[in-house]
Amino acid sequence: MWKIRKNHQKIIQNETLLFDRFIDYSNNYGLVYPNNYKIGMSNLGLHFIYKLINSRGDANCERFFYEDSSTEVLSLESNRYLNEFEVILFSLTYELDYLNVIKLLKNANIEIFGNKRTQLFPILIGGGAALTINPSPLLKLFDFIFLGNADKKLNKIIDIINKKDYETKIELWNNLKGIPGLIPGEFISKTNYYKICNEKPEDPIYNSILTPNTELKNMFLIEIGRSCPHNCKFCSVSNIYGKYKIFDSEKIIAILNQYKNKIKKVGLLSSAVLEHKNIKDVLEFCIENNLTVNTSSLRLDLLNSEILNLLKEAGNKTLTIALESGDEKLRLKCGKSFSNDEIINKIQLAVNSGFHIFKFYIIIGLPGEGEEEIFNSIKFFKRLRSELGRVSLKLKLSINPFIPKPHTKWENKMFSDRKIIKKRFRMLYKELKKVGYSLKLGKLEESELQYLIANGNSEIIYPIINSINKPYSDIIQEVKSI
């Protein structure tokens, strides 16, 4: 345990808190991100919850993360055990984190199934993108699950919990059940009707803590838009978060101005960065104040010389674009309307603006994809490299299998056979490696397990628990057997 405590102390010492804490230990909340610290602290939802609870003055919130090597589940702030906290909030971004929730509860000596937790505390509440897409697999575990945007509802939930005018979780549910987006665990009340809360905040959310110990080292993350104006057939974002909202550029700039002396790097987060009508103003502010800017992947058809020059001047070195496919018809079917010619013209424009590193997101196993579409993709990417000339470039293809998920237009499609996916990747790899591309394929067993969890019902939890410490391949077989 001393190693964990020492590591926690080191992490805390390296953090910079960006808000004033007003805490009260009469109401203690454990905030769990069931993945490692590096990933968890890159999640803005975690930052938002942590700041909100620790700014109220009537509660205390401490963080927990999942580390593979640790069987002790201790808070980062005080090294208290997870089972000592009255309320435990879980934020889940990825389906595979469902497995980590089970492991954390086991290691913390907390009963996994809600109907077997006979005492009032702890109260377990889940939320996040993965649960919004499909809460069913954890309905037997959590007491309550929040679906959608909790920004405007979390304070009310905490107000009701902190009153402690209830003796059972069913009584607590009677107090909570009018809150949009909140649903009960199966043992409290079974329901087949889930309503997602699409209400969005007025102001953008941003880092509450800076830390060098993340993938985005000491980067100040700020949300510039919520949801997405597009409705690509494979993507759930616009359906689970509702109508696209652009946050006021004056508010974004005011926040950046408030912290500009404490930060050097800014991450502009949105599913649709360039769709922000005043993105130029934000970029210009960052340039004027010597703030390096990184962005989420960009919509290619909105790139122009002015935007590219601003991105380059703001310190962008890599241009990341989600093409989905090198086959034009398949890309159009996905919801991306730009042609192969347009892609080549835009990439050439980016090269002329000084970009030399490009990362393209590609999906294989899409509905309607066969070997002909793979050959067309090979042909396109070879043409792209040829038309860009002899200039020195780094061209990266990040390739992942298509994962059908609820709340998408392709939710009823199937996950492709892993052998077919591997074959198509080898086809791409063999031909495109020759002309200078680097290609990386996502882990197929992880992707298939994501698919099964994202589309599973509440019974899926039993085979997962029974095989929780086995390899993914074994868990997949257990889940398929039910």
Q: Which helices and strands appear, and what pairs or packs with what?
A:
Layout: H1 2-14, E1 16-17, E2 28-33, H2 37-40, H3 44-55, E3 60-65, E4 87-91, H4 97-107, E5 123-127, H5 129-133, E6 144-146, H6 154-163, H7 169-176, E7 182-184, E8 209-210, E9 219-223, E10 225-226, H8 237-241, E11 245-246, H9 249-259, E12 265-269, H10 279-288, E13 292-295, H11 305-313, E14 318-324, H12 328-334, H13 340-352, E15 357-364, H14 371-387, E16 394-401, H15 418-432, E17 437-441, H16 444-454, H17 461-466, H18 472-480
Parallel strand pairs: 2-3, 2-4, 4-5, 5-6, 9-12, 12-13, 14-15, 15-16, 16-17
Antiparallel strand pairs: 1-8, 6-7, 10-11
Helix pairs in contact: 9-10, 10-11, 14-15, 16-18
Low-pLDDT ranges: none
Q: What would the principal axes of the Cα set say about the shape?
A: globular
Adjacency order of strands in the biggest sheet: 3-2-4-5-6-7
CATH topology of the domain at 2-184, anyone? Rossmann fold
Keywords:
37% helix; 482 residues; single chain; Rossmann fold; 18 helices; four-stranded parallel sheet
Structure write-up:
- With 482 residues, the chain is α/β, with parallel strands linked by helices.
- It contains 18 helices and 17 strands.
- The chain has helices at residues 2-14, 37-40, 44-55, 97-107, 129-133, 154-163, 169-176, 237-241, 249-259, 279-288, 305-313, 328-334, 340-352, 371-387, 418-432, 444-454, 461-466, 472-480; strands at residues 16-17, 28-33, 60-65, 87-91, 123-127, 144-146, 182-184, 209-210, 219-223, 225-226, 245-246, 265-269, 292-295, 318-324, 357-364, 394-401, 437-441.
- The model has no long low-confidence stretch (mean pLDDT 96).
